[in-house]
Every structure is written in structure tokens, then in C-alpha cells.
Write a structure and sequence with these properties.
The complex is a heterodimer of chains A (about 400) and B (about 90). Chain A is an alpha+beta fold. Chain A contains 12 helices and 7 strands. Chain A has helices at about 25-50, 55-60, 80-95, 95-115, 120-130, 240-285, 290-320, 325-330, 330-360, 360-365, 375-380, 390-400; strands spanning about 135-140, 155-160, 160-170, 180-185, 195-200, 205-210, 225-235. In chain A, the strands form 2 sheets. A 4-stranded antiparallel sheet of chain A has the order 2-3-7-6, with no helix packed on it. Chain A has a 3-stranded mixed sheet with strand order 1-4-5, with helices on one face. The two termini of chain B are about 15 Å apart. The chains are: A alpha+beta (about 400), B mainly alpha (about 90).
Chain lengths: ~400, ~90
């Protein structure tokens, strides 16, 4: 179950006797947390655009924030496929909570894949497990137009310390996180594309609000903008160039877990639709209502979406285990990763829309048990978190050089 | 391959021209020597697609995907060598 990292620690870590983790049992527990905590507060979180504190607290109690941390540090040592299934499950109950969880796991993965040969980060991983520290990300920057591979701000190093100031238009749950991974140029004279990934710790940075978060969907992610002024020890700079972290980890990992949580939102919409159709069918047993045919149609699309997510998740997991970073870095895998995001972000809107058609006015109301308002509004966010047009253009450029089947 | 053999097979000036037009480098290519690491001058993997197309057009060659690695585009010298191999 542990993912083989492509960069091995330079000291032997004596693996503690792994505690046998039954994933099926864990998933049941995840669903229980979903029903008993996430679902209970989801409408309130959405209405008030507030941080789902109860959900995150429940995740911490279940040690889920260290799900992707290897067993030798006390984490669960889950792989990307299992993490995705948890994200999908949470998506059934609250899109914002699921998104926060997914974003946190992405940051954990950056440290797990790329920083284990730093003694600082080995200690950090243990601390993350013990304290269930929540990690956030500041990759976008004002002035770069959503291009992750380019930074304006730069770290300034003075001996063992660095300082950095970044204007980030969006930092999801930034106010509520313990630690923040941010991107910046490696130095004041570095080109825009020569970036490092730095962890800044609560208490070591000031975040001045730049913009608010009052959006159609994913309202509970509290993705306000901030000017972050931080300092820290140069140990906190991840030892791998960000360029490599992005292509080996951040890009595929994020698109997979987002696809999974969007699948979870879509699946819940289909479940609502199914419950509605069943209620209708009870009135005329023996006669399949027309809405049941619509349900069959939307179930097909949901299956395609889910298979797409786990197909790529399994491929990525195999490549990580097999120690094939070259293939992950290549255009082919990058194109497929982008295609997953493009496809899932379109399917979620179609699926929730179809579920709404099935549920009719009950789905349209905000105050009914079949309400699909939050699902629909969350669904429209998928195509915009990194705008699909930007991604399609990247694929178009890469396809000039890549031939499928090579 | 010695540098003089290299220069006689593929004109590094032509490679520099392509880089100047399509490389989107942060530094003037004429100031860099043939072995300078272009990734330190702002070269990105996406920009290599444009460079590749311009080279294909200029030298009438076709790059197979196996040659579209980071190392091929690392320097003026490595690009010239790749083109020379393809023009064969």
C-alpha cells in the first residue's frame, strides 16, 4: 500500500511493524463521518461560505490528514487510488469539505514524494501525523494570469534564513491551515520559470487579506486572496525544483483527487435522483416511470467519469511504484492528466444537470430533501479551477510533439 | 564529435536564430556559449515544442518523440548535434 517514492531518503528508516489497515473498514468510517458530520453541516457551510471546521475536526480525529504519509512516520501509507476513494466518499456529503481534504493531500504528497531525504521534512512528517497539521497551497500569483509555472516573487536568502512576500489571489482555507506551501522564484535574479517550493509555518508569516471569497460554489473552501509575508529557515525549501514537483506530483495528483471528489458530488446527485425515481415508481409498481430511463442514461455517464478517474489513478500509482519518473514527466502522461480534468469537469455538470431534470422542482428548491442547488453550484467550479481553456491550449501545444502509442 | 566538425555539419548560428525567435529565453542567446545550460536562461519544456517546430521547418527534419527529451534542448551544442543526427 505504501507508494515507492522516486527520491529515497539517504538514511535508512527502520520501518515500524506495519499496522494492518483494512481499507474497507476505513472507507466505512469515512462514510460514517460523511453522514454524521459533513452532511449535517454542508448546507450551513455553503450558505454562510464558512470553513467546515466540524468536518476537518472529524477528519483529524480519524487521523485522515496523514492518510498519504508513509507508515514509517506513523501515517496510514495509503496510495493515490485509496486517497481518491476517500475524496470521492467525502464528495458525496460536502463538496467544500472534500475539496479542502483533497487540496491538503496534494501538499502532503509533494513533501512525501520529494522531501523525504531532508531530515527537516522527515521530522515534519512525524509532526504532521502527531498533530494532524492542515496544509494549504499558494501557487497562483497576481500578475501571472493563472500560470503555475511562472512566479514574480522570489525568496531572498540570508545565511540560513529566507524571506518572501507573495500576492496570492487565492489561498484555499489559508486562514485555517497550519502550514502553507508556496511557489516563488529561487532568487531575485532567477528567471520566472525557475521556481522553488517553500513551506511556511503558522506563526512565521503574516497574511494580509487581498480579496474575499463569495462564490457560486465550493463556498466553504474560503479561498480568499492574501499578501503573504513569510520568513523561515532554508531547510523549509523543498530540495527539488518546483518544475519537477509540479510534473511528477502536483499536476497528476491534484487532477486525480479533484476528479474523484467531483465524481463523489455527481454520485450523490445521482443517488438523489434514484431516490426520487423510486418514490415515483412506488406509486405505479410494475410500470417503469420515464424518469427511470433518464436515471439509466445518467448512470452511464457517471460510470465513464468514475472509470476515467480510477484508470488514471491506477496508471499513476503503477508508474510511481515502478520508479518511472520519466514517463510521468513526459507529454503523454501530462496530456492524459489534463484530459481527465477536462472530461470530469464537463461530466459533473452534465450529470448534476440531468439529476436536476429527474428531480424536477424538488431538486430545484433549496429547502427540499432532494435539493441539488449546492451540487450544481459546486459542479460549475470544476471547469474554472485552472480554466479549461488554458488546459486545452496546453494540450494542443503538447500534441504537436506527442504521438499516442509511442 | 569535435566542435569544428559539429559546426561544419550544422550551422550553430541557425540554431541560435531559432532560439532567439522561439526560445522565449530571458537572456540574449548571442551572449551564451554553445554549452550554456539553456534551462538556466529561462527555457521551459513547452517552449521546446515551438523550437522543435521551427527547427523542423528550417532544417527539413522530423523529431521523433524519443529525441524530445530535456537533454536534447539543453544547449546550442546539443540541439545542433540532434539536428545533425536527424539530417544524417
Amino acid at each position: 500500500m505504501t507508494t515507492a517514492v522516486t527520491e529515497l531518503p539517504d538514511t535508512e528508516i527502520t520501518a515500524a511493524a506495519p499496522v494492518a489497515l483494512n481499507f474497507d473498514e476505513l472507507l466505512k468510517r469515512v462514510h460514517a463521518i460523511g453522514r454524521e458530520v459533513l452532511a449535517v453541516h454542508a448546507n450551513d457551510v455553503d450558505r454562510l461560505a464558512r470553513f467546515p471546521a466540524e468536518s476537518i475536526e472529524a477528519m483529524k480525529e480519524a487521523q485522515l490528514l496523514s492518510a498519504y504519509v508513509p507508515i514509517e512516520y506513523g501515517g496510514m501509507g495509503l496510495n493515490i487510488v485509496e486517497t481518491s476513494r476517500i475524496c470521492e466518499a467525502f464528495g458525496n456529503y460536502c463538496g467544500s469539505s472534500a475539496m479542502i481534504y483533497a487540496m491538503h493531500c496534494i501538499q502532503v504528497a509533494c513533501v512525501v514524494h520529494h522531501a523525504q531525504h531532508s531530515s527537516y521534512f522527515r521530522r515534519y512528517l512525524k509532526q504532521l501525523v502527531e498533530e494532524q497539521r492542515l496544509m494549504a497551497s499558494a501557487t497562483t500569483e497576481i500578475g501571472t494570469g493563472g500560470d503555475l509555472r511562472s512566479s514574480i516573487c522570489a525568496i531572498e536568502v540570508n545565511g540560513d534564513c529566507f524571506t518572501v512576500t507573495k500576492k496570492a489571489p487565492v489561498i484555499s482555507y489559508g486562514e485555517y491551515s497550519d502550514d502553507l506551501l508556496l511557489t516563488c522564484r529561487s532568487g531575485p535574479n532567477s528567471p520566472a520559470s525557475e521556481q522553488v517550493h517553500v513551506m511556511v509555518r503558522r506563526g512565521e508569516y503574516i497574511a494580509e487579506p487581498l480579496s474575499t471569497w463569495d462564490t457560486m460554489g465550493f463556498r466553504g473552501t474560503c479561498s480568499s486572496g492574501f499578501t503573504v509575508s513569510a520568513h523561515g529557515s532554508t531547510d523549509q525549501i523543498l530540495p527539488t525544483p518546483f518544475n519537477d514537483i509540479l510534473s511528477l506530483t502536483m499536476h497528476p495528483y491534484s487532477h486525480i483527487v479533484w476528479g474523484a471528489l467531483w465524481t463523489g458530488i455527481a454520485a450523490d446527485a445521482v443517488n438523489q435522483a434514484r431516490a426520487f425515481v423510486r418514490a415515483e415508481a412506488r406509486k405505479t409498481p410494475g410500470e417503469t416511470p420515464i424518469s427511470a430511463i433518464r436515471l439509466a442514461e445518467v448512470d452511464l455517464v457517471l460510470q465513464e467519469m468514475r472509470h476515467n478517474v480510477y484508470g488514471l489513478a491506477r496508471e499513476y500509482n503503477e508508474l510511481l511504484k515502478g520508479g518511472c519518473p520519466g514517463q510521468i514527466h513526459g507529454f503523454g502522461f501530462s496530456i492524459r492528466t489534463n484530459n481527465l480534468k477536462l472530461s470530469c469537469s464537463q461530466r459533473i455538470v452534465e450529470i448534476v444537470g440531468q439529476a436536476l431534470l429527474i428531480c424536477g422542482i424538488s431538486g430545484y428548491r433549496n429547502d427540499s430533501k432532494f435539493s441539488l442547488s449546492r451540487h450544481l453550484r459546486d459542479a460549475y467550479g470544476a471547469a474554472l479551477m485552472v480554466n479549461n481553456d488554458r488546459i486545452t491550449k496546453l494540450n494542443a501545444t503538447m500534441l504537436l510533439a506527442h504521438r499516442e502509442g509511442n | 564529435m569535435t566542435e569544428s566538425t559539429l559546426e561544419s555539419t550544422v550551422d550553430t548560428t541557425a540554431v541560435r536564430e531559432v532560439l532567439a525567435q522561439h526560445g522565449r529565453l530571458t537572456v540574449d542567446i548571442s551572449t551564451l556559449d554553445v554549452d550554456f545550460d539553456l534551462y538556466g536562461a529561462g527555457l521551459t519544456s513547452l517552449a521546446t515544442v515551438g523550437i522543435m517546430l521551427a527547427l523542423e521547418d528550417r532544417f527539413e527534419v522530423e523529431f521523433p518523440e524519443s529525441m524530445l527529451s530535456r537533454s536534447t534542448f539543453r544547449s546550442v551544442a546539443s540541439i545542433a548535434e540532434a539536428v545533425a543526427k536527424l539530417a544524417g
